[in-house]
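Lecture notes, continued. The same structure-token format from the folding unit now serves as the input rather than the output. Read the line below as a description of shape only.
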């Protein structure tokens, strides 16, 4: 499998075949954050492992070309991380994104542009939070017959706190879109967690949402 290993905000290992193009843009006097641009040329899969040893920031841009099916497996562990993802899906392209986190703290912004007819986005995120984690996820349905299927599952540990905020935007004239969300947080402490789903649309869409916040108290 294709693989990228990150330590803090830098790539320390990459094993990639010709289906994936990786460009690294290092921070400089104009840009204060390292950027990875990943272009997916043919149907393939990729594993990204993060090892966060100190506070870090990172931008990642993923471009999926037309008629390409892409599987992304992502694992994170370590200290505080701020990351921004920008994903662009073109005509009849699709991504299946499986994510597993165990970090001290997390702040993430995901911007997903469904630019082509029939583009499909699927993501499953599971996280165990010992500190504050906030995820803002923006999905833009810029073409007809796009799909967005989302599963977020979180569990808080010790002083953990989780906020999931999702927004799907469907502009007028963008028809036959499907949006599915299932979100759940299990709390192990007294800190407030939130799930905030937003839907902004001017056209009819098929929507299914399942939202749960569960409190688990194992104190004796």
């Amino acid at each position: 499998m294709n693989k990228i290993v990150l330590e803090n905000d830098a790539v320390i290992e990459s094993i990639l075949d010709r289906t994936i193009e990786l460009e690294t843009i290092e921070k400089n006097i104009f840009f204060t954050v390292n950027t990875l641009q990943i272009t997916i040329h043919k149907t393939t899969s990729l594993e990204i492992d993060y090892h966060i040893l100190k506070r870090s920031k990172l931008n990642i841009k993923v471009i999926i070309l037309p008629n390409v099916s892409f599987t992304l497996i992502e694992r994170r562990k370590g200290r505080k991380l701020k990351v921004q993802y920008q994903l662009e899906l073109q005509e009849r392209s699709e991504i299946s994104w499986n994510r597993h986190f165990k970090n001290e703290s997390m702040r993430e912004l995901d911007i997903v542009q469904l630019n082509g007819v029939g583009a499909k986005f699927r993501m499953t995120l599971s996280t165990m939070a010992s500190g504050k984690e906030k995820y803002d996820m923006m999905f833009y349905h810029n073409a007809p017959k796009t799909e967005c299927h989302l599963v977020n599952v979180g569990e808080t540990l010790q002083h953990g706190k989780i906020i999931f905020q999702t927004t799907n935007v469907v502009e007028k004239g963008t028809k036959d879109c499907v949006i599915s969300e299932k979100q759940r947080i299990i709390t192990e402490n007294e800190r407030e967690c939130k799930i905030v789903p937003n839907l902004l649309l001017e056209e009819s869409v098929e929507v299914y949402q399942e939202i749960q916040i569960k409190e688990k108290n194992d104190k004796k």
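Point for the exam: The chain has a mean pLDDT of 91.
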